[in-house]
Amino acid sequence: MGRKWNNIKEKKASKDANTSRIYAKFGVEIYVAAKKGEPDPEANRALKVVLERAKTYNVPKAIIDRALEKAKGSGEESYEELRYEGFGPNGCMVIVDALTNNVNRTASSVRAAFTKNGGSMGVSGSVAYMFDATAVIGLVGKSADEVLEMLMEADVDVRDIIEEDDAVIVYAEPDQFHVVQEAFKNSGITEFTVAELTMLAQNYLTLAEDSQAQFEKMIDALEDLEDVQQVYHNVEL
């Protein structure tokens, strides 16, 4: 698949400076999801997805509760959901999803992160067609065969089941995210190493060492932007 889900998550949360950044981004994402529908995750599927992902990053309950209370109360901040597409070293493809209350600031910052690190912005649709929206759920303590048996007993279809280090990663259609999770929860599994909706590249490429270093610098620059929520790409890690 070109990605090591648990390793990527650990890398993102490995630096103290990044921890507060990640928590702040989740606060915004939870607030926006709650404002778009009910602030109750059982009645708001988009909010439920965000909260499930927040759990895998150990986002403190206080931050989650603060965002939900803000959405229930007088919080009237307006955020736009934006998607940018672009290219990095050797033509690798990158998708950037953002939530912003200042479109001009975000567009300028994203463009700078690309161009200062050997990349370039593309037009809408120039990259996204090479990615597939995918639900990804990971768990430990079970083998791939055991996971497959659980899903078969629950009559749940998925795209793929892969063993990755000490975890099992399940890939499914986006609309099966909650179905897969419920199948696991009904089998007594309530903790997940990964639980998110993502964009998976249809094909991955390997970069030379110097290009890889430049690419990673570009991705770090994009992920460090306060308005950027997610960065997807097609580079083998």
UniProtKB/TrEMBL annotation:
Q: What's a BP term from Gene Ontology annotated to this protein?
A: regulation of DNA-templated transcription
The organism sits in which domain of life?
Bacteria
- Transcription regulation: is it a keyword of this entry? yes
Query: Which keywords are on file for this protein?
Result: Cytoplasm, DNA-binding, Transcription, Transcription regulation
Q: Main subcellular localization, coarse class?
A: cytoplasm
Q: Say yes or no: keyword Secreted present.
A: no
Gene Ontology cellular component annotations, sorted alphabetically: cytosol
What Pfam families does UniProt report for this protein, alphabetically? TACO1_YebC_N (PF20772), Transcrip_reg (PF01709)
User: What range(s) does the TACO1/YebC-like N-terminal domain occupy?
Assistant: 3-73
Provide the protein's localization: Cytoplasm
* InterPro entries attached to this UniProt entry: Integrase-like_N, TACO1_YebC-like_2nd/3rd_dom, TACO1_YebC_N, Transcrip_reg_TACO1-like, Transcrip_reg_TACO1-like_dom3, Transcrip_reg_TACO1_YeeN, YebC-like
**GO molecular function list:** DNA binding
In terms of SUPFAM superfamilies, this protein maps to: YebC-like (SSF75625)
> Which HAMAP family does the protein's record reference?
Transcrip_reg_TACO1, Transcrip_reg_TACO1_YeeN
Q: Which family does it belong to?
A: Belongs to the TACO1 family. YeeN subfamily.
Q: What is this protein called?
A: Probable transcriptional regulatory protein CBW46_004030
Instruction: Report the source organism.
Output: Paenibacillus xerothermodurans
